[in-house]
Amino acid sequence: MPKISVISIAKKDSDFEGLRKALANQTFRDFELITSTKGSIPEAWNDAVSRAKGEILVFVESDAFPLSNNWLEEIVKHARKNAVLKGLEINPTDLNLCNLVCDASIFKNVRFDESFKVREDTELFARLRKMGIEVGFINAFPVVHVPTRTWRKTLSRALISGMYYMKIIYMYGRKNIDDINTQNFQSNYIHPISNRLRVIVENVLVLLGLVVGAIIYIPVIIKRKLDEKRWSA
Predict the structure, then answer these.
(1) What is the sign, positive or negative, of the torsion defined by CA atoms of 142, 148, 153, 158?
(2) Domain of residue 63, residue span
(3) Which of 38-47, 53-62, 91-100, 159-168 has the lowest mean pLDDT?
(4) For 94-136, what is each residue's pLDDT tens digit?
(5) Which CATH number do you get for residue 82?
(6) Number of structural domains in the chain
(7) Following DSSP, what letter does each residue of 78-135 receive, concatenated?
(8) How far apart are the C-alpha atoms of 56 and 75, rounded to whole Å?
């Protein structure tokens, strides 16, 4: 059984070529690379997780690369039981699945919700936090991740992303959502100049999605709280 399972997903197998080369230079050798190109994003993550055999699961995007050859050694030092830790990501956005380390036992009875088109990672973290699992950032084992953003991807995902965010708040409560995102590494936040306008547009669309989601879910949340008070009275 390998000590570490490095898990990554992509649209096609050739997308993993850079990651494979980076892992070949790692000083820590007791690991396996599990990849998936299956179906939707959460389906691909679930497919990869189901085949992982390591004691520690390391989630990483296919276009992210370790900054050093002792990346996996550092992960082994910092990983701990019953915890999900987000390592340093050069170009971070929020708590996501790039450079995420967790105890494999957490995933024995937990999988990604495949009904989520986006924000499947946010939903998972909120669910784990509600279960009492530690979820947080750690300033260690950095990777570089500067994803290429296209207008098509920005327009198709951003608005619905905000709506799903409100849905997760409705499902798990604000205290279990990404309030720890305020701890992200803004000093390392970079974008190619060509992507900056897309980032601005994406943020605006996410905010619009939050507004739409609020219109849908806030009345339901208020009704639920009133019903809880009525039953407890």
Answers:
(1) positive
(2) 4-232
(3) 91-100
(4) 667 788 999 999 998 899 999 998 889 989 999 999 998 988 8
(5) 3.90.550
(6) 1
(7) H--TTEEEE--EES--SS-STTEEEEGGGGGS----TT-SS-HHHHHHHHHHHTT-EE
(8) 9
